[in-house]
Design a protein that fits this description.
single chain; mainly beta
């Protein structure tokens, strides 16, 4: 029984660790959230039916807002595009780039790994030789695009 309690407590600690830092500001610039001191601040009113918004940290770029346009320097971060019908341009080098939404176009300077798991997504890369895993439906990966390498 002691092992079960420790395992459950470890899950709570892990969940708490993941939630720390999620209090990011809403829509500061370019469709990407910035920390509250750079954005609208923690006191800004939010409609509870709206999505939380795109997220930018030192490690991750998360694009969840549907029909958004984002252009940003990837800076070796992991990128997840779960938005539908988004246009995302990631200049520079990325780590892992994952497209899980529908109908998005993602242009990458370069990436270590590209994973497609959504529907009708297109990813292009300007340079490099990324590992590609295409498990999506009607999705494509090709060299080219407008992103700066």
């Amino acid at each position: 029984m002691g092992a079960r309690v420790l395992k459950a407590m470890g899950g709570v600690v892990l969940l708490g660790s993941l939630l720390i830092g999620c209090g990011m500001g809403r829509e500061a610039s370019g469709g990407i959230d910035l920390p509250p001191e750079q954005g609208q601040g923690q006191g800004a009113a939010q409609d509870s039916t709206e999505p939380e918004g795109n997220l930018l940290t030192d490690e991750v770029i998360l694009v969840i807002d549907d029909e958004t346009d984002v252009r940003i320097d990837c800076a070796n971060r992991e990128v997840v595009v779960s938005a539908d019908r988004a246009t995302v341009v990631l200049d520079g080098d990325c780590g892992l780039v994952r497209a899980t939404g529908r109908g998005s176009v993602v242009e990458v300077g370069s990436a270590e790994k590209i994973i497609l798991a959504g529907v009708d997504n297109e990813i292009s890369f300007a340079g490099g030789d990324p590992e590609v895993i295409n498990q999506g439906r009607n999705t494509s990966v090709h060299e080219g695009g407008q992103a700066q390498g």
